[in-house]
């Protein structure tokens, strides 16, 4: 695509100056304790008011787990540590014998990734793991991710120590509960203390574990329901004001969190200014929200919003765009850009039109980063923003992190003012703005549902092959083929734009949940990244199972196929109800 004259007028108004003031302010304000988070919300509200932009402030109670102190006692001395959010609070200490577990570090990239790397080196099953860790405290390389914490707890471990890859210790989280817990979620609250240490201290602990040694983990966390503030700006569209794009990011951070996510908060502020000043040029509305509870509540702010505004989001939200960690130093690459298939071309063309020679790679979004709207069924793009090129990261000897533009200051006290880069920030602001405009402005919503169907067909073929006859995919293949043809016909017809737009939203409500979630709509899946078409993903495991487990897996697959076919048939009936001319 090329930038239109109207888009250029919007882009030419983007400035760094106002946004930079908010970054400078936040660089002096830690924002993870509840009272400090609310004070930061007041700063955002004041900045919006100074620009003449009306703002609504929601004030929900959010369930937060705030780490205060952590340490590990070894040989009578204390080792510096950090407790991930939602680690079990054990101020009096939990003692046990250390056991060293080997782990594939590439599979323990961060607290949002899976735990496949734990299995190997003599540990192949849960029984193997339990034999190693029951009644002990394992130490291994990686991050204190939720799936790992849950696994160690299930195996009978008394606690968990993770050695981060470098000299710094990173904050994180270790719960799979997404947002405010419901009654059914409480069983998944971690019941063991978890502590992260630096790589040098981790190596020391691993050496001592090999010699049979005891340690004491102490963690102190403040946990409970806290009133928090959510600033929300609504910029009304001129001709279709009821429908809107949700643009959002978190403003709570670990310590002062400049690159994660003061730069994102500043981006939202600047886009609010530009969009508000040019609101008469918008077709659809734009809602901009700043979330608390991202770090200490596992996306509690965005989850509360999804719960409490679910009907409005269901009926009128055309897409959600997440803004996290833009404008960081050295972050000139876009090879880890998150987008759903139907939105991928929007991200790609927007980046290319701002940065013509950009390195762009589109990824399926992880179950992370305030993607609290999958179970409603919102088309989505972006999560993390620009990042440093892999070659530069390797040259600097940096390990892989999930934010801050690839800077290893991520989730540490070092995420300070030098992490922000005004030139990169200006570029990222323009990319976000252009992406918003390309959804807010067209007469017909620009989503490419044929791309989504192509992705789903590919997933089905893979699962069918991996199941190796354990399930009958015939009905699923046939329904998907018919569905795809109907989509092509309807969107290439002269069906009125208003019907096509409503159809796009209705298709999202069907396809996003079936492609990204297991639980019913308006619930929230656990914070563990799932494979595509999660209700069918058991097909990828069947060949590894035998006996009773195989029979159970085949049953799960049949139920998943039934659910998948029902969803696609709902889509077929929807499309067949639309006149072709």
UniProtKB/TrEMBL annotation:
Peptidase M28 domain sequence ranges: 232-425
SUPFAM superfamilies attached to this UniProt entry: Zn-dependent exopeptidases
Pfam families on file: Peptidase_M28 (PF04389)
Classification via InterPro entries: Peptidase_M28, Peptidase_M28B
PANTHER family for the chain: N-ACETYLATED-ALPHA-LINKED ACIDIC DIPEPTIDASE, VACUOLAR PROTEIN SORTING-ASSOCIATED PROTEIN 70
Name listed for the protein in its UniProt record: M28 family peptidase
Provenance organism: Acetobacter musti
């Amino acid at each position: 695509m090329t930038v239109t004259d109207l888009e250029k007028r919007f882009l030419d108004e983007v400035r760094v100056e106002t946004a930079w003031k908010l970054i400078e302010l936040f660089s002096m304000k830690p924002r993870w304790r509840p009272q400090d988070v609310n004070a930061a919300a007041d700063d955002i509200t004041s900045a919006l008011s100074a620009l003449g932009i009306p703002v609504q402030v929601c004030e929900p109670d959010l369930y937060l787990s705030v780490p205060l102190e952590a340490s590990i006692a070894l040989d009578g001395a204390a080792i510096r540590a950090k407790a991930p959010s939602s680690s079990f609070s054990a101020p009096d200490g939990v003692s046990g014998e250390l056991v060293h577990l080997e782990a594939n570090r590439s599979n323990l990239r961060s607290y949002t990734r899976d735990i496949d790397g734990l299995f190997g080196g003599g540990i192949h099953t849960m029984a193997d793991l339990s034999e190693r860790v029951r009644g002990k405290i394992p130490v291994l390389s990686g991050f204190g991710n939720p799936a790992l914490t849950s696994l160690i707890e299930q195996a009978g471990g008394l606690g968990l120590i993770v050695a981060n890859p470098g000299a710094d210790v990173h904050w994180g989280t270790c719960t799979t509960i997404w947002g405010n817990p419901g009654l059914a979620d409480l069983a998944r609250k971690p019941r063991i203390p978890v502590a992260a240490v630096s790589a040098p201290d981790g190596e020391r602990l691993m050496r001592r574990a090999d010699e049979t040694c005891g340690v004491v983990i102490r963690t102190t966390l403040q946990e409970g329901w806290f009133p928090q503030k959510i600033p929300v700006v609504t910029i009304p569209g001129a001709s279709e004001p009821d429908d809107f794009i949700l643009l959002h990011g978190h403003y709570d951070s670990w310590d002062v969190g400049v690159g994660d996510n003061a730069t994102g908060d500043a981006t939202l502020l600047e886009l609010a200014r530009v969009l508000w000043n040019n609101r008469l040029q918008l077709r659809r509305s734009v809602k901009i929200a700043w979330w608390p509870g991202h770090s200490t509540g596992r996306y509690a702010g965005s989850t509360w919003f999804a719960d409490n505004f679910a009907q409005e989001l269901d009926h009128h939200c055309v897409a959600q765009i997440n803004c996290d960690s833009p404008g960081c130093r050295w972050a000139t690459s876009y090879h880890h850009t998150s987008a759903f298939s139907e939105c991928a071309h929007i991200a790609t063309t927007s980046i290319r039109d701002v940065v013509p020679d950009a390195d762009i790679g589109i990824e399926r979004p992880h179950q992370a980063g305030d993607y609290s709207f999958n179970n409603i069924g919102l088309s989505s793009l972006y999560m993390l923003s620009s990042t440093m090129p892999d070659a530069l990261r390797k040259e600097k000897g940096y390990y892989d992190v999930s934010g801050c533009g690839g800077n290893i200051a991520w989730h540490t006290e070092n995420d300070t003012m030098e992490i922000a880069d005004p030139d990169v920030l200006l570029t990222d602001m323009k990319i976000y703005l252009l992406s918003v405009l390309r959804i807010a402005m067209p007469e017909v919503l620009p989503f490419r549902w044929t791309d989504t169907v192509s992705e789903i067909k590919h997933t089905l073929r893979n699962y069918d092959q991996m199941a190796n006859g354990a399930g009958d995919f015939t009905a699923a293949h046939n329904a998907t083929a018919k569905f795809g043809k109907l989509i092509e016909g309807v969107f290439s017809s002269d069906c009125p734009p208003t019907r096509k737009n409503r159809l796009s939203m209705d298709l999202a409500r069907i396809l996003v949940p079936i492609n990204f979630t297991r639980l019913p709509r308006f619930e929230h899946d656990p914070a563990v990244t799932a494979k595509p078409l999660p209700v069918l993903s058991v097909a990828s495991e069947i060949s590894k199972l035998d006996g009773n487990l195989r029979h159970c897996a085949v049953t799960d697959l049949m139920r998943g196929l039934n659910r998948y076919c029902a969803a696609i048939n709902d889509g077929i009936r929807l499309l067949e109800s639309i006149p072709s001319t």
